[in-house]
Amino acid sequence: MSTLEIRNLHVSVETDGEGTREILRGVDLTVRKGETHAIMGPNGSGKSTLSYSIAGHPKYTVTEGSITLDGEDVLAMSVDARARAGIFLAMQYPVEIPGVSVSNFLRSSVTAVRGEAPKLRTWVKEVKTSMAALEMDPAFAERNVNEGFSGGEKKRHEILQMALLKPKIAVLDETDSGLDVDALRIVSAGIESVRAKGETGILLITHYTRILRYIRPEFVHVMAAGRIVDEGGPELAAVLEESGYDRYVKGGGAAT
Ligand code: ADP
Ligand code: MG
Ligand code: MG
Fold it and tell me: Whole domain around residue 46: which residue ranges?
């Protein structure tokens, strides 16, 4: 059983010039193995801050509350230790790693997380299969990570990492944004195939409802102004598709 538990999470960020600002103001969320949760909300509501806080980005300071994975204190872990514990973050804006090929990057990530290098023959096969499933050209493996990648290539590369790392908890921050219809279908299929194994709890962060036509989460949470303000099943996504976020932000001093 893998359970990520977030309790009363308050997170502040050190801004450039304007001091400390509280972004998350008491978030509660539980994600269990095999479950898919969508977190939706307007821009600026704190979705990326939540994902960075789970992964351990040094810029975001937890001032109150807790995050645990199977009872272990995640907040006490370094970024690396969180990855080894089975937490994976696909960032909204993946970074370039000049001079490091996709192939080497994936192998070192998997080695670091598993604690030993994967056997070469099975590894090569595993990468090939996963890349084919994401309709990625094998030559892609020799390119440098995110250097000159299109938006769609960056997102496929994130999903490729997830497929190979087999995390306990995967946080996917706007993996759908900027994708055309074909890329969205391929990326969604990649997420679905990880989901189908039932070994990963997925936190799908998204601004738009369109990815939820391909991936139906069991749970939908709405975030506004640093809090979860509404929760429901997939039917809530349908409501949001109709009516947007207006009723959550009106007068609430929410999005900036
Ligand atoms: P979302 O992902 O929902 O769009 P974010 O978590 O990116 O929201 O941002 C939430 C709020 O926190 C926004 O008002 C944003 O400007 C602010 N914020 C996030 N990160 C920083 C930062 N590093 N410095 C200053 N403000 C930040
Ligand atoms: Mg944003
Ligand atoms: Mg964001």
Answer: 3-249
Local structure of 126: helix, strand or coil:
helix
Q: Tell me, yes or no, whether 151 lies in a domain.
A: yes
20 lines ligand 1 (CB under 6 A): no
- Ligand 1, atom 11: closest residue by C-alpha: 44
Q: Is 59 in the pocket of ligand 1 (CB under 6 A)?
A: yes
| Residue 56 included in any domain | yes
Any domain includes 19: yes
68: burial class by Cβ within 10 Å (0-12, 13-18, 19+)? Answer: middle
Q: What residues contact residue 19 under an 8 Å CB cut-off, 6+ apart?
A: none
How many structural domains is the chain composed of? 1
pLDDT for 96-134, tens place per residue?
999 999 999 999 999 999 999 999 999 999 999 999 999
CATH number at 101 reads 3.40.50.300
Q: Is the ipTM of this complex over 0.90?
A: yes
Which residues, chain by chain, have CB under 5 Å from ion ligand 2? Answer: 43
Q: Among 12, 22, 23, which residue has the most ligand 1 atoms within 8 Å of its CB, making it the best to mutate?
A: 23
Cβ-contact 23, 49 below 8 angstroms: yes
Residue 256 placed within a domain: no
